[in-house]
């Protein structure tokens, strides 16, 4: 007889829901109920997918060859386009045979960990981190080892911190620059030092480059494999079209890896999902083969919003907000507000604070607990200028 307490496997039962999606869903539910909620939770551009990409998808939907199964690793022409795009944007050559097209960047992350992690392996995870990383590590049987860098260090971990966390069980490092959730961007020198450290100690690097085109001020995106070419044999690159081309709903990502890892991950995907939807793959092909003019236009808007949000957040007493150099998130520290009364409620954690902000200011933000230690908030500035100003103004009034 089935144990009623064990109906769900321990493996899946231990997975926490995506905090960012949960916040976004709650904000949308409150808006549907008539409340004027402004949401800073969603990690997606508010722009429509550029018209030429949509046109390519419409044409693809009418082509019978896209109505059938295609290779699990992706359309050959898309894999070739990803290789060409990597040379163009990252400055190094890859073999298209080392590319797997995945159902969004999220599947690439899961497959990367599944391909190299065994039970008991440790993965060093710089914090604050994207909420999905530790869940993917756990599902692969690995152990997450957090290495935290706070606002005083602009959320950038050092080689010394990584070395202090390394043990004989360390198998991999997750590297994300530009970063979700902080917007931090590692310099070329910092990236090279981390890559050389990983190479020296035989540690795999899974590098998430999904925000590569969204950098501001003097920051530059630095591909770790370009800086440390010898690392290519122990590195998995994950990326996708979602953030760059405003294509979050199209679900096209990819992973680039050494031949043995690619083969293992392709076998896994052949059983898990087969091929990515062909219409989406054709749309991604149009995106990668097109220019970056629309990307530049979106980046200009994000930059303007970034500056507005950071300036307004810094006007709030007790809020410390480093300047994000990439992606489309601000990650202010609210540690000084912990233990205070906000709107008549004592807030001991950033989760408490986020709840008060949602209930009393009708603004949805994601608390730091979703990304590591408490005491922080993540706010996306990928929303309209007017809503952005109104939302942060409401927070100012509540916390002022």
The amount of beta strand, in percent, is 5-15%
Q: How many distinct helices?
A: 14
Second CATH tier, the architecture of the largest domain: 3-Layer(aba) Sandwich
Radius of gyration computed on alpha carbons: 21 Å
- Number of discrete domains: 2
Helical content band: 40-55%
Separation of the first and last Cα atoms: 58 Å
| CATH superfamily annotation of the largest domain | Type I PLP-dependent aspartate aminotransferase-like (Major domain)
Instruction: Note the main sheet.
Output: 7 strands, mixed
> From the helix content, strand content and strand pairing, which structural class follows?
alpha/beta
Q: Can you list the strand order of the major beta sheet?
A: 2-8-7-6-5-3-4
- For this structure, what is the CATH class of the largest domain? Alpha Beta
Map the helices and strands.
Blueprint: H1 10-13, H2 19-32, E1 38-39, H3 51-61, H4 76-90, E2 99-102, H5 104-116, E3 122-127, H6 133-139, E4 143-148, H7 159-165, E5 170-176, H8 188-200, E6 204-208, H9 224-227, E7 235-240, E8 253-256, H10 259-272, H11 278-289, H12 293-314, E9 329-330, E10 341-342, E11 345-346, H13 350-361, E12 363-364, E13 366-367, E14 377-380, H14 385-399
Parallel strand pairs: 1-12, 3-4, 3-5, 5-6, 6-7
Antiparallel strand pairs: 2-8, 7-8, 9-14, 10-11, 13-14
Helix pairs in contact: 3-11, 4-11, 5-6, 5-10, 12-14
